[in-house]
Specification:
Helix 2 (60-77) links the parallel strand 1 and strand 2 (81-84). This protein has a five-stranded mixed beta sheet, with helices on both faces. It has 248 residues and is of the alpha/beta class. The chain has one domain (25-238): Aminopeptidase (3-Layer(aba) Sandwich). The chain contains seven helices and five strands, in the order αβαβαββααβαα. Bound molecules: zinc ion (ZN). Residues 44-45, 51, 60, 127 line the site of zinc ion.
Amino acid sequence: MRWLGVCGIALTLAVGLWLHAHAGPNLAAAVYSLRGRVVAVDPGHGGIDPGAIGPYGVNEDTINLAVSLELATMLEHAGAIVVLTRTGDNDQAGTTADGPSSRRRLDQRARVALIRAADAEVVISVHANHFSSPSEHGAQVFYDSRRQAQSKELAALMQIQLARITGETRRKISEHIEHYILAQSDVPGVTVELGFLSNPREARLLAQSSYQHRLAYAIYTGIALWYARVPSGTTAPSSPHPQTASNP
Ligand SMILES: [Zn+2]
């Protein structure tokens, strides 16, 4: 099996060289800060819940999962430990759910339990948007301003990378979000809205694996740069789930 190790080293070197050539030395260095970090990736929806409905038979849950799986692979290649809240077209509600709203509630709780059990240090929830006006477009990162301050920094870095790497968004980060999983996870986190399925041109892009790859790569670089920038000891990893009275 020694050739597997050689292949792994060769792949890591190849990725490092590619990053250096295409993203500059800062990102190539930042990627090393991902080693050993525990990152939760939450592909929104799944199972009976398709999320936003796309015009070409590709719905939000499918796009969220495709981008999340690519993101997970990139993070793992950089040495991070990834916890995915789903890996297929399913939810985590189990068999006791009684109707769609109960199913959604149980699903969300189970996802938070997975994230907490893994001691994830950061949560990336992946969604796609829908709006009444078909002209709205572009990926956008949301954070909850009432939660960890580092979430805003992560959102800002990720938004810059989405603009740079997709070339399809001029949106700004937003704090206007109510997200149970982010709120309950007790660690920094963001929701990435990949784009608008209500925009016909963007819906076509979102369904393309090449564009999904670019989105995943933009999210990945945002996380890498955030880890490289946030001084160790000030992020949630040092105390991911406060248990004591001094951390109410
Ligand atoms: Zn969604």
